[in-house]
Amino acid sequence: MGVKKEARLRGRFKEDINEAVQHYLASLPYDWRLHRHDIEGSLAHAEMLARQKIITRSDYTSIRDGLHSIMKEIESGRFQFKLELEDIHMNIESRLFELIGDTAGKLHTARSRNDQVALDMRLYARRAAWKVLEALQRFNSQLVDIAEKNIKVIMPGYTHLQQAQPVLFSHHVMAYFQMFSRDIQRFESCLSRINIMPLGSGALAGLPYPVDREFIAGKLGFDDISANSIDAVSDRDFIIEFESAAAIAMMHLSRMAEEIIIWSTAEFGFIEVGDAYATSSSIMPQKKNPDAAELARGKTGRVYGHLMAMLTVMKGLPLAYNRDLQEDKESLFDTVDTLISSLDIVSGIVSSIRINAARMKYSMQSYILATDMADYLVKKGLSFREAHDVVSRLVTYAVDNNRELNELDIREYRGFSKLFDKDVLAITLQKSVEAKSSQGGTATVEVKKSIERARDVIRGYEKKQS
Amino acid sequence: MGVKKEARLRGRFKEDINEAVQHYLASLPYDWRLHRHDIEGSLAHAEMLARQKIITRSDYTSIRDGLHSIMKEIESGRFQFKLELEDIHMNIESRLFELIGDTAGKLHTARSRNDQVALDMRLYARRAAWKVLEALQRFNSQLVDIAEKNIKVIMPGYTHLQQAQPVLFSHHVMAYFQMFSRDIQRFESCLSRINIMPLGSGALAGLPYPVDREFIAGKLGFDDISANSIDAVSDRDFIIEFESAAAIAMMHLSRMAEEIIIWSTAEFGFIEVGDAYATSSSIMPQKKNPDAAELARGKTGRVYGHLMAMLTVMKGLPLAYNRDLQEDKESLFDTVDTLISSLDIVSGIVSSIRINAARMKYSMQSYILATDMADYLVKKGLSFREAHDVVSRLVTYAVDNNRELNELDIREYRGFSKLFDKDVLAITLQKSVEAKSSQGGTATVEVKKSIERARDVIRGYEKKQS
Amino acid sequence: MGVKKEARLRGRFKEDINEAVQHYLASLPYDWRLHRHDIEGSLAHAEMLARQKIITRSDYTSIRDGLHSIMKEIESGRFQFKLELEDIHMNIESRLFELIGDTAGKLHTARSRNDQVALDMRLYARRAAWKVLEALQRFNSQLVDIAEKNIKVIMPGYTHLQQAQPVLFSHHVMAYFQMFSRDIQRFESCLSRINIMPLGSGALAGLPYPVDREFIAGKLGFDDISANSIDAVSDRDFIIEFESAAAIAMMHLSRMAEEIIIWSTAEFGFIEVGDAYATSSSIMPQKKNPDAAELARGKTGRVYGHLMAMLTVMKGLPLAYNRDLQEDKESLFDTVDTLISSLDIVSGIVSSIRINAARMKYSMQSYILATDMADYLVKKGLSFREAHDVVSRLVTYAVDNNRELNELDIREYRGFSKLFDKDVLAITLQKSVEAKSSQGGTATVEVKKSIERARDVIRGYEKKQS
Amino acid sequence: MGVKKEARLRGRFKEDINEAVQHYLASLPYDWRLHRHDIEGSLAHAEMLARQKIITRSDYTSIRDGLHSIMKEIESGRFQFKLELEDIHMNIESRLFELIGDTAGKLHTARSRNDQVALDMRLYARRAAWKVLEALQRFNSQLVDIAEKNIKVIMPGYTHLQQAQPVLFSHHVMAYFQMFSRDIQRFESCLSRINIMPLGSGALAGLPYPVDREFIAGKLGFDDISANSIDAVSDRDFIIEFESAAAIAMMHLSRMAEEIIIWSTAEFGFIEVGDAYATSSSIMPQKKNPDAAELARGKTGRVYGHLMAMLTVMKGLPLAYNRDLQEDKESLFDTVDTLISSLDIVSGIVSSIRINAARMKYSMQSYILATDMADYLVKKGLSFREAHDVVSRLVTYAVDNNRELNELDIREYRGFSKLFDKDVLAITLQKSVEAKSSQGGTATVEVKKSIERARDVIRGYEKKQS
Lengths: 466, 466, 466, 466
What we know:
Helix content of chain A: 55-70%
Strand order of the largest sheet of chain A: 1-2
Mean pLDDT of chain A: 93
Oligomer: homotetramer
Number of domains of chain A: 3
Structural class of chain A: mainly alpha
Number of strands of chain A: 6
CATH topology of the largest domain in chain A: Fumarase C, Chain A, domain 2
CATH superfamily of the largest domain in chain A: Fumarase/aspartase (Central domain)
Largest interface: A-B, 122 and 122 residues
CATH class of the largest domain in chain A: Mainly Alpha
Radius of gyration of chain A: 30 Å
Number of helices of chain A: 19
Strand content of chain A: under 5%
Distance between the termini of chain A: 50 Å
């Protein structure tokens, strides 16, 4: 029996598929990346078949050895991939026929392409989720180091990109720690829905063989087996959920990238990105461009796009498997590649940054203490609304006279409210920061606590992984 | 002090905002829906302020009574909403000034608009998640009833919308139970990130008051307080995550709606949607259109769109609060409304359906048993690949001679393989179904087990809610 | 015959639709906005029916007068909208029955809901396109005024948000003129596909009446009639195309908004937005936030979302009309409202801006002239690549020694290349700008030419409209 | 001078870029596809430089010959691409240095990477648009052939996927002709905005050289030169517009694919897709799956995703060039590849289809003529609404008695309205079709006219191309 014809499974068709169609249908150019997972799944499947006496022990040994050989061929680069076999599964199967003869045909007992592909994608997505989690944890760990190291740096905190109140640079950094912590939670939650074993669902109806699905699940480290065969072959929720968690994580990166870019401008001058993460210009010799940060921001679009693509693919699709589902692969692969590389690159950028603490401090206008002055008046008995009103008028006066607040004398202050005393002049950036000692606030003591808690969380990651 | 001016907070500005700008900036047309949450949050905040002696007990009593009056005014429809006050928060605050005078100004002590809005949105999203969970559980409960009631109905199972293998109708229905169960998991997971209390973060830096954030969290039933004030006011992850869970759930509904529409065609004729969920035509008197299912399918686009909108809004936004975030409201409100109403409507459609079991059975071609014949040959010793090849040729022969498989006689079968015996003619739809007795397969015994497990899950929901 | 029953068109159904379903299906809450277009279309249709003797002249007169009365009732606010009649079309039709009796039924001769809705949406979209075009032209006209008025202002031009080369502020402004000019082209192109008359397509197959479609098209000012009845009732391309043109226009606004926000920071300080377009803070008395610009940037997400929604709705929809199409309305209405209001608001912001020319100039570092120095060397015979290399080293030297380029003396220059002569010290911002006199460059003479050409284009708009 | 260092343009940087960053930033893996356009652009640029005496004639000859050699090296596969040179432009430039020495440096005179990339992308997009137009026109031409060939086939026309009225199969096919005709218009319109020559814009400010931009535009076949240098390097509208036209075209393909899939079911049985476009199943020997159509439907998601990605990339990006823009390439390349291959594949599927006209006819229920009966009554004097009501009751009677309309006798008809005469029984599918003779209707005479007009349009394409 010709392998090729067999491989094509085109039993009852009379006309051959043409080359353009083959290219259109072929997934080999990207799904070769599943080879390890495909072989891993086949090994577990074959072992189960032998244990359940669906195939003989010697058939199993032969299949197992053949698969091991193929794995070695692929990893050493000797494997001949054939586009005309369309996908990685048929490439491996066809090679198995060459190596061990017709026994290869028994590997497909009690297995359909539909549940095999679902298994491979879940193995891939699981590994990808693990890698994303590691990258997020690495990044978080680094953020905590940076926060700890720069605990004395004060910068303007912004709302509406206007200077609002002074904050610790470390407090700002720890805000990202919180974002990535939520990303970690989302990927962990998603993982619990990825890690379900679909094999044994057949084409859609289940199998007329005494298969042991729990055995395969145990062998491959799955948490559970899928509960409904129709759902198992048509479900791609785990891919969409992965991509939506990735989209949110990329959004976080885009916010950080935006800040890196703005802070690197000549006008802000808060930071300088390391040379390794910047590029020069082909025409402007003085330029030092934060290209890597810009590209990370740009790549957010790509991940959003993949999410939208998969949502579109699945919309209105009747059960069970449809060929549309093949579009899940490139979408997920590129999402994973983009997210992991972007996390690593942005993490690298952050660690390369030289902080210009003096510039941060110097840039702050005295007006940034206006809220503190309102709080000062509240403590002297005004309602916050009244205090706000007094200080608004005070600021207007200063701006109109082109003076900073700390350039006004106490008489001028008292012109706006008799509650002002000399101690109002003692309000400083540092005092403003330390006053914000509510839980989660920017006071040094609070930020240090949050760094401590973060260290605990990170030790938790590390324990888990070891 | 004029309430209106105060309300506008435009202290140091000299030029008034014009009407077009006011309309553009105003969120009142949609955020009035937050009124209950806003008042609920203010009550907890005021109580905390009093406990912490930041305001006096009598100020608190006065604020509390004022807020209660406002709640009654709103609920009874007597409240005068004013667009010029822009949002629900200023509407309530301004009315409080009218009712209790300047004491109203103290409510804003130790609170900023930024953390107040974050609190209100979390209270809204939490309640919305609870309602979505109830709707999903109701639907799931109903699906189990339908699966149980129709356990004897066999229908063609499809892949590629081609008849593949016979399955129990109940098995197909239970595939959707699995999908909605994952939706429930996702909303529950999301809820754990929604249910975090942000108040006490101030504008972005925390507060210079001895606030008790844990007290507020306990009072309002939150699981925890937010850990970083900058993150707390600029985080909208919980909205995007909610919307992405909603997008997946709508995708599931769109798949069900598509099947309802296809099965309702004259050509399929598997089901008839109840009159209450169908419409007629203005021009074609015979039409009975499954409009409600079509609209549910269409509304999938709307929810995808809201997700994409929020991802776009957040892309590249520097910390902390920016006015762009105001766009979160309509996006989330409409997502919630659409998802809940669509779940209820599709659930209603499903319960109204009249199943035409005879038509389902009659529609199945004998070829749908081809896999069973291949399995038959495997049990007699062929490899699956060889068996597949034999049956392919057998089917081709039948199709070419315009005959069904059960119209061939045993000699014709044996022309393709000597392994065929008379018992091959005894393969029936029912036997095919019952043979798929692997875990999660379509055999009646397996489907009944899955129904039992589902009943347990549902009892779990009910216990939780009571 | 009961109007209500008639109105519901539920001839052969035995069960009534319930209230939840009615709310789900009802489009009245938004499609009431089509009332004028619906009546306009009905008037033209009735007139045609009379001309073609499909109805009598007196029937026509009666229908026409009835429709005029209804128009007046709606415009004066006296019309009673009824949600149970689901849409604006049935509301008007039902009222017509009340006003003129059974003759009202004749209006529906030779017309189906499907082609009627298609007509109304095209009339709406056409008017919307006209309004968008006006708003774009108004904005462009204003940009030209601003460019002309500020022709002497030099600002740093940016790439990668790093200072790159000095440019005229007017040149930067005129870049937006180009963007909006392309938006105008796109909406004009889209208009040619909107302005096609679909009435006379029946439900999907055409009509068995001697209708005169050209007459209706002429009466309503359409360019042509639709060519295929099936396509005419199922086509929503014009809505998606409109929304994609709107998405690009919003993207342009988001870029401008981003620049307004960045330039308004304390750190840049290039501009100050007028009070009318800024807001203060509830907690920080000194803040002046460019809220309107932020919101315009945020609303970009909403328009992207609507585009994605409609693409999703249409994906995989079989011909001809399906109820999913009802989702086109809110999507388009909100796109139009958002785009027009955002154009007007951003245009208003721009006109309110106070430019701080001194700050723009002062912010430029000498390094911004590095390319000019490379060009200087090229003119003395180096290849550009060599010149770039020399100046790179020169800049590194200056940066390392913490000096500006114009603080180096000629000997230091000559240390890097003997081609430097004293005239290198005469390179100024102004000279740099004026040197860029290639077509489309930033030299004043070129920018003035582009302003002149823009004036011609604007005169072209105005002529067209008058 | 080392080519590599030069190539990296990292003049003033002290630290080398690391490998991970290099991979992240590198566009070579995809932008090698621009090589032809890059060389084509460089040739025109160099020729202009020589004509304008910016470089010498002999420098030009040397550059030209070097570029020709490089082109040959690339096309013959001998060119050594180097990832460390990041992009195709530096690969070519670096090779030019190797081939002709330092003269190569002069090619970069009066050109920046920013305008060079913009030029290359426009050359690519223009060629892509031409190819898409050809594919659309080919497809349209084929649709007309099919419509003409099958002019006698009657099928059920659908609304809501319910049988509505009989239509000519050719009329249904010609609906797609209309859709693709609009796609053609959109790509032609987009082409007018693509075909603008950006070179000569420098990095962003224009050039201090006497360049002749019109010469380059003429040489490369552009319609015009860009009008503003800042806009020219930061504009990617043409890519988004291309992608949105592609998204609409893919949506059209997805609708056609959906119909092919539904019509290929055993239940509809209207068509059979050619073997060349179908695949079998690995487990179900009888299956013939319309995989190519499913994949085309699925690939719609990918194109939507690319559109969303680019809209996201551009959102809120300040002027002028930012590295985010690099994301335009893969997005556009894959959009083009997907659209063209999908058009060709679906066109191939359509031409491979075997139409089962008997099945189409047989599937129609008599109720499909109900509207014709209402029209019959209108011609006898009822209003359409009254006629609709009569026929509704008639159909209900028939359905309740399980009879087709043509099985009722004339007395039964007259029980519903005395206006019924014997000739009502003579209403047939064919007569129903022919009655729809309004312009654009399904009557044979009208469909033939539309085919004629389509032929004219196609002859127009052909003339244009020759």
